[in-house]
Amino acid sequence: MELIIYLLIGAIAGFAAGLFGVGGGLIIVPILYIVFSQMNYDPAVLMHMAVGTSLATIIVTSMSSVSAHHKKGAVLWKVFANLAPGLVLGSFLGAGIAHYLSGQGLQLFIGGFALWVAFKMFRGAHAKIDPAQHLPSTPMQMLAGGGIGIASAIFGIGGGSLTVPYLNRCGVVMQKAVATSAACGLPIAIAGALGFMWFGQQAQVDLPHTIGYVHIYAFIGISVMSFMTAKLGAKVAHRLSPAMLKKCFASLLSTVGIYFICQGILHF
């Protein structure tokens, strides 16, 4: 029964990821939080488990996405190489920061982040790229990668919500920004998941079917189904306007953000 629940979560997250063009982390984290709550997991580590497991699942979906984008020649591998060192170091550091945050603090952080992304999506639903902008120097790209990595690990996402806007602002067209962001999601997810496993082991998390802050059954079930349903979501996305998609996703994120902020405040 438990595995069936994780398969359903994966189906929803994969469809949403394909539909909205971003990783499923901001979908997976709140659903896992609710499921783990119903399973009476320790509230002190509940949120950390949701975030760590979410990052682990992004490893699989990111590999699939990168392969598809690479075949179309859309990935800017030089930009990826510049961002990657910062992404890896930042993601591991982000996992450490999340480890030292209380469950309530993590809820407030993620809730606030979801609302911020929702606001940016609402405001930028009809935004156009400025072709006059250019990518900064290599050291600045590495620094940006570090910031994206830290935030992505704390929030349990593949970084698309941050990498795509960053590349857009630097004059990269949307298709190549999304493709490069997908590639960036892989080092974020690997380093972040390993960080949550390691810090979780240090905290001696005593829950069944887990390695540190990563739930193995949830990882397998969500990864398998999200890999399959992401393609269906992408097909549906082509029938809707990009502006409408952004507004729908922003509405969903607003709901998630308000939910986590309320939960965090109630448990303080």
UniProtKB/TrEMBL annotation:
Predominant place of localization: membrane
Keyword tags: Cell membrane, Membrane, Transmembrane, Transmembrane helix
InterPro entries membership: TM_pro_TauE-like
Cellular component GO terms, alphabetical: plasma membrane
Domain of life: Bacteria
Family classification: Belongs to the 4-toluene sulfonate uptake permease (TSUP) (TC 2.A.102) family.
Protein name: Probable membrane transporter protein
Organism, scientific name: Acinetobacter cumulans
